[in-house]
Amino acid sequence: MLKGRIRNHIRKLRFLGSEMTQQQLAEKIGVTRQTVIAIEGDKYSPSLEVAFRIARVFEVPLEEVFQYDTTDAGSGGSM
Amino acid sequence: MDLSYQEKSILGSLLAVVVVYGYYFASVLRDASRPGFDGGNMARLVFTVVAIVVIEVVYHIVLALESKVEAKDERDILIECKAYRNAYFLLASGAFLVIASVMMASLAGDSVPTRIIVTPFLTINLVLFFMVLAELAKFLTQLFYYRKGL
Lengths: 79, 150
What we know:
heterodimer; B: mainly alpha
């Protein structure tokens, strides 16, 4: 089975998007700030619905926010 | 340490259960040789349940005043589901153990050791013990996933 991990560029998109705070993003997508922190830190993969909401907030396609990385699966760190 | 509202809520409930039921089971152990479950035992159990409810209510009122109340989101619910799975496993294991001890006692007849195990007093408290253990497993699993991530 193909193994990998979901990575994201939310932190970068937040700063490009007029330095949106984690709290502001959390309120826009209907989750808590701790969940945004967990998503940014690759500690939680959101549901498809929340993933689409995030992409819509930044007005970019889903693939620009999330990538399924199979090259170095298992290594730590976030974007 | 930056704790979310949910983590603070769970931590408070965990401490309340440990302290109150810890005190309850310490007193139960002193009376372990009692055969029946009398009015005194019932009063002690009711007091323990009331104490837990009062502590939880007061703690959550203080918590709501001190920090912003946050509704559960999908991550909280997923963590809760994983926690309930562990709690269910412990509770089911405990139920199986109690059923097995009662069945063995019935089959053994007048065998003294098994009769000691299955007195009503111990059976009731053993069931309660596994219920508390399941609750603790739920809280600890939640705290673990909030810190480690899913």
